[in-house]
Amino acid sequence: MITYLVAFLVALMVALVLTLVVRNRALAWGLLDQANSSRKVHVRPIPRLGGIGIVGGFFAPLCALFLVDSGVGHHFRYHTELVLGLFAGGVGIAALGLYDDLRGAGAKLKFSVQLLLALGLFALGFRIELIANPFGPPVPLGFLSLPFTVLWVVGVINALNLIDGLDGLAGGVAFFGVGTNFILALSRGDVLLCLVMAALAGAILGFLVFNFNPASIFMGDTGSMFLGFVLAAVSIKTSAKSGTAVAMLVPVMALGLPIMDTLLAMVRRTVLGRPMFSADREHIHHRMMSRMVLSHRAAVLVLYGLCALFTLTALGLHWANTAQSAMLLTGMAVVVAVLMRKLGYLDLRRASDMGEARRKNIRLRSLVKDVTDAVRAGNGVKDLWDAVRPLAEALDASRLELRLERQREGNRDGLTFETQRPAGSALPLEVGLEVKSGDETLGRFMIAWSDGRSEINRDEELALELVADAVGDRAAKLLALADADPQRVVALRR
Question: Are residues 253 and 116 in the same domain?
Fold first, then answer.
C-alpha cells in the first residue's frame, strides 16, 4: 500500500504544479476556450490545455519505476505489453488531443487515430473475448473480439470527451471509474494495475483542484481523450481477470454515466436528423441544470452521486451470484428510467414534434451543404455573398449581413453586404458570428429575426457556424490570391 500511496502523491503533486504552470502560460498566450456558443456553459474565456497536467501527473510516477532498482520496478518493466500499450497509446492519444486543442482536428482524423490506437491495443493483448450474461453463461465472441474491442476503446474515449461539459464533471466521472478498477485490482493483488490506477487518481485530483467549479482551467480534448483511453485499456484488463459471469459488465457499469450519455446523444441526433458529431445542449448535465433547476455545482455533485451509485453496482456485480446480479441490474435500471423520465428523455408527447424537427433538420442540412459548396466555389467576395444570401429566405430572417475586412498598410479596408426582408415586426433577435481563418478574424456574419423569437435553436446555430467557417476559409484564400495577383481577384476596399 505504501507504493500505491507514493505513486498517488507523486502524481498529485506533479499534476498540481504542471496544471498551474499550463494555466498561467495559456493565459499569457491567449489559449482560451471562448464562451461564444449557446452550448457553452461558462460565460468568460477559460484557459484550456489542462489535460497536460493530467498526462504529466500520470506518467511521472510510472516513469520513475524505470529508474528505481526495486521488485516493483522489475515487475513493471517485465510486463512489456501493458507498459507499451499504456505509454505508446497514452502519448499518441494525448498528442491527438493536444493538436485538437491547439489547431482543431476533424472527426475523420480523430477517429482514424483512435482506431489505430485501438488496433494497437488489440495486437498487444488488450482483448474483449467474453460478453457477460448475468442470467446464464457468458457468450464467447470468437472472431468478433476485434470489433468489440475497437468499439469499446473508441467508444469510451469519446464518451469521456462528450461528458466534459461542466466544471469538474469529466474528471470526477473518471475518478469514480478509476476507483472501481483500483478496488477490483486490489482484491486480486494485481500490483501493476493498482499502481496505474493510483497514479491516474492522483493526476485527476491534482487537476480537479483547478477545475472544480468555478474552474480556472479546462482539461480540453488532451485530458478527456487521455482519460478515456487509459480507462478503456485498464477496464479490458480488469474484466479479463474477473469472473467470467461478469466479464465486461463491471466496467460498463463503472462508466455507466458517460456511456449512457453517449448512447442518448447518438439516439437523439439520429431521431432529430442532426449530424452525429454535432454539439448540442441536450446532454444529461445540461438537462439537469435546465429541467431540475440546479446550479452548475449542484448538478455536478448530483452526477457524482449517480457515479457513486454506478460504482457500487459495478462492485456488487463483481462479487454477486446470478440472482443477485439480476436484482442489482433491475434496481439500477429502475433508477435510470426514473432519471430519464425526470429529464424528459422519455416524454412520448414530443414524438410528433420530433418528427417535424427531423424533417426540418434534414432540409437545413441540405441547405447548408448547397451554401457551403457554393461558397467554396466562389471566385470573388461577391460570389461569397451570392452563396450565403439564400439563407435569409430559407431561415425566414428579416436581415442578413456579411462584412469582410482586414488590416492593410495601416488602414482597415472593408466591404459590407446586406439584405432585408419583411419578416415580422417584433424586436429583432440578432445573432453574429466571427468569420475567421485560423486565429485571424476576417469579418462578421450576422443574421436577425423579427418574428418574436427570443433565442436561436442549436440546429440553426450549428448551420450558421458551418457557413461562417466555410466563408472564412474561402475568404482567406481569395485575399491571399489578391495579394499574390491583384488582377485576378478584386481586393476589399472601403
Answer: yes
